[in-house]
From TrEMBL:
Gene Ontology terms: cellular component: membrane
Molecular function, one GO term: signaling receptor activity
Name of this chain's protein: CD7 protein
Keywords of the record: Membrane, Transmembrane, Transmembrane helix
Bilayer-crossing regions: 91-113
PANTHER family: CD7 (PTHR15343), T-CELL ANTIGEN CD7 (PTHR15343:SF0)
Record Gene3D superfamilies: Immunoglobulins
Biological process, per Gene Ontology: adaptive immune response
UniProt key word Methyltransferase: no
Biological source species: Aramus guarauna
Length: 144
């Protein structure tokens, strides 16, 4: 037998020596087991909060109705987890990412445009020597 023992005493699974199994109604469609020689592996699915309990394996003593419990059992504490609807939040994150990308690209374009315009609007310091090379100037220079 697999039994619940503390919160709600009930039978969960019975496997006979001829490997005939009985899954009790509370765990119907939520329990799987496999048997290999003297080892049984039990898997519980779709657990609910009220499934929290101490689970123990017990054997029937030959020629009596007494149960013999093997080991201390397994305590299962099932915690309810609040599930979020991710479809709305993922669209929000996607939209926020797009807005931030557009804002960043606009800021970069503005900065580049501003720097580029500043470059052409600045007064340039003349850094050259001016010399008058006209013909009339040269003539006057040669005469003197």
């Amino acid at each position: 037998f697999l039994l619940r023992t503390h919160m709600q005493r009930e039978k969960v699974l019975y496997v006979s020596s001829q490997n005939v199994s009985t899954i009790f109604p509370a765990f119907a469609n939520r329990l799987e087991y496999s048997k290999q020689k003297k080892k049984i592996v039990i898997t519980l699915h779709n657990l609910w909060k009220n499934d929290s309990d101490m689970y123990v394996c017990a054997g029937v003593v030959k020629n009596s109705s007494f149960l013999s419990v093997n080991g201390s059992g397994t305590m299962m504490m099932i915690k309810e987890v609040e599930q979020m609807d991710c479809s709305n939040s993922s669209w929000g994150i996607f939209g926020l990412t797009i807005v931030l990308a557009l804002l960043f690209s606009t800021l970069m374009c503005y900065a580049l445009y501003h720097v580029h315009m500043k470059k052409y609007c600045q007064k340039k310091n003349p850094n050259a020597v001016y010399e008058d090379m006209s013909y009339s100037s040269r003539l006057n220079t040669l005469v003197r």
